[in-house]
Amino acid sequence: MNFPPIRELLAGAGRRIDPVDAEWLLLHVIDRSHTWLFTNRDAVLGHEQARNFELLVKRREQGEPVAYLTGRRGFWSLDLEVTPATLIPRPETELLVELALERLPIDRTSRVADLGTGSGAIALAIANERKQSQVIATDASSDALEVAQRNAQRLAIANVEFRRGEWFAPLHGERFDLIASNPPYVAVGDPHLDAGDLRFEPASALSSGGDGLDDIRIIVAHAPAHLRDGGWLMLEHGHDQGAAVRALLEQEGFVEVATRRDLEGRDRVTLGRLNSTH
User: Fold this and answer.
1) Residue 278 has pLDDT above 60, yes or no
2) 160 in helix, strand or coil?
3) 3-state DSSP call for residue 151?
4) Which of 55-69, 112-126, 182-196 has the highest mean pLDDT?
5) Distance separating alpha carbons of residues 23 and 133, to the nearest angstrom
6) How does DSSP classify residue 33?
7) How many CB atoms sit inside 10 A of residue 232's CB?
């Protein structure tokens, strides 16, 4: 059986799913770069490649995220493995990394905790940019931690350690210069949980109580016991939760509390510094 050239396959797939998604799926199947695709659009796939591409397009039509179909997602400067056991790293979370790096020295050691690490995206990005830092990443899911550990090994990032347990449970008696987290923050019952890619992502990594703030309350309440004097806590949250998260930090004695917006102008990360007199 003769298959049409790649340009025709992509045109057909692009009428069924997002054309950009179609390109990513094709590149995954043929293990080639965008540069190769640009100059080889008249090439013809083999039978097995064409069959695999069609299967992936069908699965994407049914809503499965491209990151799960390819097993990969770029984050910061890293190419990360992702699986249905982990949340898919998103571009807006890079703001959390950016704000952390602004507060971590390049030329001396620091201790950082990443709570609910998932694929390891935040912990690995920080550890890779701050080679002298010691990063501890926690997650309650052993499956997620296996993915994070594979990412660390493949990327040869050695200054990060992964521990299993909810939030601060694996960090008994330890203090840090900075604690970062992208916890679940969607309200239980939010209709977004039944739409798009979110349908396929782990519910435990997405929703948290009636107002979405249950896990954030836990983290804020316990953070002072795990921060050094003047240490920072920073949390990703929903676009309409900035005021509530600022209030939680202020109630626990944090100072310099502020909310930063993502590239689309939405409240995304709230941070505060532990008052040295706390």
Assistant:
1) no
2) strand
3) helix
4) 112-126
5) 38
6) -
7) 24
Q: In sequence order, which ranges of the chain are alpha helices (DSSP H)?
A: 6-14, 19-30, 34-39, 47-61, 66-70, 94-102, 121-129, 142-155, 214-222, 242-251
Dihedrals phi, psi of 62, to nearest 5 degrees: -85, 0
AA letter at 227? L
CA distance 87 to 35: 29
Cα 106 → chain centroid:
23
Pair 260, 269: CB distance under 8 Å: yes
Q: How confident is the model at residue 191 (pLDDT cuts 50, 70, 90)?
A: low
Which of these, 109, 118, 107, lies nearest to 75 by C-alpha position? Answer: 118
- State the Cα–Cα distance between residues 252 and 246, nearest whole angstrom: 10
Would you state the pLDDT for residue 186? 72
- In 3D space, the residue among 122, 152, 117, 157 whose CA is nearest the CA of residue 138 turns out to be 117
Q: Which residue has the higher pLDDT, 210 or 102?
A: 102
Task: Map residue 109 onto helix, strand or coil.
Answer: coil
59, burial (CB in 10 Å: exposed 0-12, middle 13-18, buried 19+): middle
Q: What is the DSSP string of 181-215?
A: E----BPTT-GGGGSGGGGGS-GGGTB-STTS-HH
Tallying the residues shown for the chain, one arrives at 278
Rounded to two decimals, the pTM is 0.86
The per-residue pLDDT of the chain, averaged, comes to: 89
